[in-house]
Design goal:
The structure is a homodimer of 372-residue chains. Chain A is of the alpha/beta class. The first copy, chain A, is built from 15 helices and 12 strands. Chain A folds into 3 domains: 84 residues, no CATH class; 190 residues, Rossmann fold (3-Layer(aba) Sandwich), CATH 3.40.50.450; 61 residues, Arc Repressor Mutant, subunit A, CATH 1.10.10.10. Chain A is 44% helix and 12% strand. A 9-stranded mixed beta sheet of chain A has the order 1-2-6-5-4-3-7-8-9, with helices on both faces. In chain A, strands 10-12-11 form a 3-stranded antiparallel beta sheet.
C-alpha cells in the first residue's frame, strides 16, 4: 500500500466534495494549492461570486466528511487512493486538463496503460457483439494491449471476460465504475469484477459508498476514453451511451474505431453512424485494433485542455459569452447578452466563471477579454 | 425498332472485331471516322507500327463477319443495336472516353438512367447479403432509382429480383452481360433475365454468340459502374470482382458505397476493406443509398477520360514514357528508356501508341511532346 501523504488526504477529501468532471474543482486546486485548498474552503471570505454556490455545497459536504474514517473503510474493502504523481497514476488522464479526476480509488492495481484500448458498447448487446468484444479483448491482451471498459453488462462484460481469458499476459483489464468501488455494480457482474481485481483494477473517481447516478455514468466515460490510446465501440444503438465515450475520445484527438455489423441490427446502427460521419474507422480484426492503437502516437497528441485556445475547453455558455466579447474593447452585460443570445443572468454566471479562470476582466460595468 | 444506319452497321461490325475496352478502337473510329474506318481497315497500307498487330487481328475477324446476317440473328432473339446519339444510348457511358463501348446490343429497352445505382456483389453471397441487396433494390425502385447489375448469381440476382418486385415503378433494371445477349448467362438465371427484358433491358457490348471470357467479365464491370450515378457493393470478399466495379466507379469520380456486415463474414471483408481505405461510404439503408446517388451530382462530374490531362487516361507504360519526355525538348529512345525505367522495346511500343493518339511527335531519332 503506497504512503498516504497530506496531498492524498486532501485529494481524497475533494473526491468526496466535488462532482466528477467539475472543472472549478481543478481551478481551485491549481489556484489555491491542493493541501491549502481545504483550509481555504473552511475559512475563505472573499469567494468569487461565480463560486459562491459551489463553495456552499462543498462546505456542507466537508462538515460531514471524516476522511480518516473514509480511508479506513476503503482499506477495509482493499481500496487505496491514487493521485497524480503516484507511479500507479495513469498519466494519460492528465490530457483531460481541468476535467481530470482529483483522485482515483483503486481496488487491485492499475496495470501499465501505455498501450490500452477502450472496448465499449451497448448493455443490450447481441450475441454477435459479445462474441466480437470477447475476441477483440483476447486479441488485444495477446498483443500486449490492456483493455479498459466500464464493467457493465453486455459489451463491457464480454470485453473484460475476454481480457481475463487472454493467454499471453495476466489479462490486464481495468473496469471504471460510476460509483464507489466498495459496491461492485452491477450486482450480476460481482464475480467478474472480483476476478478483474485479482489481475487488473476496478477503479472510480468517487469515494466508497458513492452512488452511481446518471451524471456520474456519463462523466465516467471520459475516464475510459482518456485512459486508452483509442476507443473502439463494438455495438451501439443510435442513442447509446457508448457514443459518449467515443465523443470524449474524439475530443482528446484519440482515434475512434467502430465494429461494423449487420445493417439489420439496431445495435450496430450507432457504429455505422459514427463511420458515416467520419468519426470512427471500421475495425474488423484485432490486428486492425492494434493498428488503431499504434496510430494514436502518430497523430498529434492532444494538448491538455486547459492549455489550449481560449475557447476550446469552455462550456457552451462561457464560450458563447467569451465569443461575444469585443476583441479589444469592453462591453456591458446587456450588450453581451444580446450578442451571445443568452439571458443577462446566464451571462452574469458565465462571466463570473470566466473571470475566475482569468479569461475576462471587469472594469466598472464593462467586461473585456484578458489578452493571453 | 430504331432505324439501322450505316453508322449502326459500322459500329455493330466493330463490336465483333474489337475487344471490350480497347482504347485503340475508339482512337481509330475518332481519327478515321466511324463509317470510313472499315474501308480503312480493309485497305490501309500506312498502318502505324503500334497498330500493326491489332489491325492484323481485326482484318482476320472482319473477313469472317457477315454483318447483315448478324443483325438478322440479333433481331431473331429480339435484340437491337444502340449507338451513341440514339435516344436509348446511356450518355453516362461517354464518361468512359476512349474506353466507352462502340455499341450496345440490347434486349428489352434501356430505361432512363438519370438516377441509377449499380448494386453489385459476390456470387457466393450469404442470405444476409441477398436480403440486403433485395431490400436496397426495392428501396431504390420506390425512390425512382434504376438498378444496374451484372445478372450473375448471388447479389446481382437478388438486386434484379428486388428491382422487379418494387411497387412504385416498372422495376427499371438493367443487366449488363459479359457475353452475347442471345445466351442468357448464367443458365440458372434465364427466367430472371427474361423477366428483366420485359420491363428493363439485358445488354452487352459484345454481339450475339460472343462467349463471356474472364477478360470480358472484368471489362463489363466498367459499363456497370459508368451507367450508374453511384456503385454500392453489398457483399464482397477481399478479392471479389465486385471491387473492380467499385474501382471503375472511383476512377470515374462516382461515389462508392459499401454495406457493412458481420466482421465474422468473409463475404463482407471486401466491403469493410473499402471503407477502411476510404474508398467506400458505409450504406445501411435505402435512404442512405439515395443520398449517395444524389451526392453524385454534387461532386465534380468526371471529365471524359480522353479530354482530361495528357497522362490521366494513359496506360501505365505510355504514362511513364510521356512523363519521361522532356517538357520542351526532344529525346532519344535510349535516354527515354533510362528516364522511364523501361526497356527500349517497351518505349518504342508506347511511343507508337502515343504518336497515334497525337500526344508525341517524332523528329529524326528524337521524340518530343505535342503541346496541347
Amino acid at each position: 500500500m503506497p504512503e498516504v501523504t497530506d496531498e492524498h488526504v486532501a485529494r481524497a477529501t475533494w473526491s468526496r466534495l466535488a462532482e466528477p468532471g467539475d472543472v472549478m474543482t481543478q481551478v481551485v486546486l491549481r489556484t489555491v494549492g491542493t493541501v491549502e485548498s481545504l483550509e481555504w474552503l473552511r475559512t475563505a471570505s472573499d469567494v468569487p461570486p461565480a463560486l459562491i454556490e459551489r463553495v456552499e455545497r462543498w462546505r456542507q459536504r466537508l462538515e460531514l466528511v471524516d476522511i480518516s474514517r473514509e480511508l479506513k473503510v476503503a482499506r477495509h474493502v482493499g481500496a487505496h487512493i491514487v493521485i497524480p504523481g503516484d507511479p500507479e497514476w495513469p498519466t494519460a488522464l492528465d490530457d483531460l486538463g481541468d476535467e481530470a479526476p482529483v483522485a482515483l480509488w483503486v481496488r487491485g492495481e492499475i496495470p501499465p496503460l501505455d498501450r490500452a484500448v477502450a472496448l465499449v458498447g451497448a448493455r443490450a448487446a447481441t450475441r454477435y457483439g459479445e462474441r466480437v468484444a470477447a475476441d477483440f479483448a483476447v486479441g488485444s491482451i495477446d498483443r500486449g494491449i490492456a483493455v479498459v471498459s466500464g464493467g457493465a453488462y453486455g459489451i463491457d462484460a464480454a470485453a473484460h471476460r475476454g481480457a481475463l481469458s487472454g493467454e499471453c499476459a495476466d489479462g490486464a483489464t481495468v473496469a471504471v465504475l460510476a460509483g464507489g468501488v466498495d459496491r461492485l455494480y452491477p450486482a450480476g457482474n460481482e464475480t467478474l469484477l472480483h476476478r478483474i481485481i485479482q489481475t487488473g483494477a476496478v477503479i472510480s473517481e468517487l469515494p466508497p459508498a458513492a452512488a452511481p447516478t446518471r451524471h456520474r455514468f456519463l462523466a465516467r466515460n471520459r475516464l475510459i476514453a482518456a485512459m486508452a490510446n483509442a476507443t473502439v465501440v463494438v455495438e451501439a444503438s443510435f442513442r447509446s451511451g457508448a457514443r459518449s465515450t467515443a465523443n470524449h475520445a474524439s475530443r482528446l484527438l484519440r482515434p475512434v474505431g467502430a465494429v461494423p455489423g449487420p445493417v439489420t441490427s439496431a445495435q450496430s446502427a450507432g457504429c455505422h453512424a459514427m463511420m458515416r460521419e467520419g468519426q470512427a474507422t471500421p475495425v474488423t480484426t484485432p490486428d486492425e485494433l492494434a493498428e488503431l492503437i499504434d496510430s494514436a502516437g502518430a497523430t498529434p497528441i492532444a494538448e491538455p485542455l486547459v492549455a489550449s485556445g481560449p475557447l476550446d475547453d469552455l462550456p457552451e455558455d462561457q464560450a458563447r459569452v467569451f465569443d461575444a466579447l469585443p476583441a479589444r474593447a469592453a462591453a456591458t452585460i446587456p450588450s453581451i447578452a444580446s450578442a451571445a443570445g443568452l439571458t443577462e443572468s446566464e451571462v452574469r454566471g458565465a462571466l463570473g466563471l470566466l473571470e475566475l479562470a482569468g479569461k475576462v476582466r471587469r472594469s466598472e460595468h464593462r467586461w473585456g477579454r484578458v489578452r493571453p
